[in-house]
Amino acid sequence: MVSYLSKFGYEPAKVRKNDYWYLSPLRNENTPSFKIDRSINRWYDHGIGKGGNLVDFGILYFGCSVAELLEKLGGDFSFQQPIIARPLVAKKQSKITILGTAEINSYILLNYLRQRKIDINIAVEYCREIHFKMDDKTYFAIGFKNDSGGYELRNRYFKSSSFPKDITTIRNGLNNLHVSVFEGFFDFLSYLTSFRFLGTKGCDFVILNSLSLFEKGRPFLEQHNRASLYLDNDAAGQNCSSLALSLSDIYKDESSLYKGYKDVNEWLVNK
Known about the structure:
By secondary structure, this protein is α+β, with helices and mostly antiparallel strands. The chain is 31% helix and 26% strand. A five-stranded antiparallel beta sheet has the order 1-2-3-4-5, covered by helices on one side. Strands 6-7-8-9-10 form a five-stranded antiparallel beta sheet. The protein has a five-stranded mixed beta sheet with strand order 11-13-12-14-15.
């Protein structure tokens, strides 16, 4: 459930041991009352008095029957339980050990990039195929390296990161004139895919890898004359943008580019 909600842009407002609290994705509210117990992978919305498993959530979220939900999904099995979700549920603090890195050549990973409309050459330039171990099992994913040597890890069924967690800075510009800021690396790759003709010279990039790392990125960001913010069009992303705008006039909110979409990648996929 936690991984699936993240796919739709919902991140927990607070975490207490195995309890993940959200602003309800099923209705509008100002106080988080939608809870996921990650130890059993079940959710409960205290505002409507309903809960259940992933399928129960899908029926309410899409407003359909089980049969309609299956028909809606068709051949897309992304709504099923992620194939490596069980270890995440069984052990909250799952340790990820990087076994090796290589150029991305897995058909599964390349196909995942194509589904998200990412230019393969751009992905290969900035990402690696990462093989890692977690809970005595081995997996592979697209890896995006941060400034401390850790990796953001993504495949169709999995979203996590290896230790240590950090921002990623990419320095291309001259005299700190301009920096573009992204919440996650798929938005960064989507931007480069959409604007290939611009290239990257003359602009630095910061990928936060988590909104909680915005403060850590500020010293580098505020060395620049302009910082363009391409954060998600959700409450968390826009709150972060509003905070940045209140801190300095170097920050510019660029989310109008993908107005009507959750983020840069969703805009790219649908445009």
